[in-house]
Structure formats: C-alpha cells, structure tokens
What we know:
The protein is mainly alpha-helical and 267 residues long. It is built from 14 helices and no strands. Helix 8 runs antiparallel to helix 9.
Amino acid sequence: MLSTDAERVALQEAAPHLNVIASDSVEYYYEQARLGIGDAYVKMAQYQLDGMFGKPNLLNVMTMGLMAEEYMAIPNMNALFMNVSDSDVLKIAFQALDMLNHTESEDSILSKSKELLDMGIPEGFLMQAVVSWKKGNKDEAIAFCDKSILGGSVIADVFKDIITASEEYGGDLKPETLLKIADRFPMAYRILGDHYAKIPNDSAIDIPLARQYYLKANDYACLGRRGAKWVLETIYIEGYPAVDSLIEKRLWSLYRQEINDSVIWLD
C-alpha cells in the first residue's frame, strides 16, 4: 500500500516512463524508489534477501531498509526480516549486528560473535572488530575486519575503511572516507551532499559539489526529500544549471511529498 497521496500522484505522472520498464524488474522498483515510493525499497530489500541481485548483501538490504524506514514504509529495520526464516544467514547476521546498538556488554557481544563464527557467518569477526576498536585497539580491529572480509562480509570491508581513516571510535567521517566507501554504501553520497550543502545549517560551502553528490545519491535512490528540495532550490532560486528532465521529475516527486502535495509537477 502506498503511503501518501503524493506517492500515488508520483506514480501516475511517471507512468509513461515506468511503462517501458519491465514490471517487477529490479530497475522498475529502483525507479519507483527514486520517485520516493517507500514500498519499492521494501521490495528491493526482499530481492536482495532472495538473491536476485546475485549473492545476498546485508549492507544493501540495510541501505534499502534505512530508506524504507525514512519513508515510513516499515516501522523499523526488523520488519524487513519478519517473514524471513530464523535460519537465514542474513537475518542471523543482522540481528547480531543490531545487538551492537542495544548493549555495551563486551561479554555478550563476544558470546554472540562466537555463535556466528560457529555457524560460519563472517560478521562474527566484525563484532569482534567493533569491540577492539571501542577499546582503542585499531590494529586488532583491522585484523578482525580482514578475517570477516575473507569470509565475504561487505559491511566489514566498509568498516575497515572507516577504521583505517578514523582516529577514534564514533568520530565524524571525513569527506575522503565517505567518497571511498560510497561505491559500496551509496548513502555516503547523500551524507557528502549534506556536508557540502551544510544541511541542516543552511550555509552551503560548495554548492556545485553538493549538487554533484546529491544527484549521485539520486542515481542510487538514496537522495531523500530534503536533498531533492535543496537541489531544486539551487536551480530555481540560485540560478544553477538545470538537470536532465527525468531527474528533475524525480526531484519534484520527492519535493511534492516533502511539502504535502502543494507543488505542481513541472513538465
């Protein structure tokens, strides 16, 4: 079920474009997601879990989940796994990593990591990496990441780059680090856009660069409504160059949802 009237309008307006894409295909749902249709992110997460993108990738599932949650298509990330078997490797890995957000108990985390490793799930090493990094042992954390990466964990690959470039656990990520991980975690393009647009502080430090990264985030369906509004304002208020007509339709679709249907569609 679509979440808002704006989403239904977005699909109606985009119908000519969507009609030339095979329905129920990956690209079909990607384009719906670029228009801000929350349910499309849920569908793509399910595709990931079902292996329709190739080898299931937990980081991609979680990225789609973050966007689905932002658009209120799901109440929280756990909802993505509600109908997934308890024996599913990605579900087990997600629930274990989610535990890191809810407990500071090193013993509990290490006990869970051992359970994962006994099942051959590489994110067990990633949990050990988090424990080591929190304790300030960067080299040990990187070593655990390497073991997790060897087992096929994409999250560990991204986490290693973050650890390598950071001075301490929980510090802000530098733009060069975000750019390095963006090919595996495209939400990083949106974070880069926010950085250079200075959202939410409204004092842009590099408008062309912010636009560049926001539009890259749009390619990956990770832009969000606030970023779309900002890009449109650079065109119609600041006088920056227009964008491709299809991209502009995506931006207006997101913007309409941001302001509750009060903006008309531009042809």
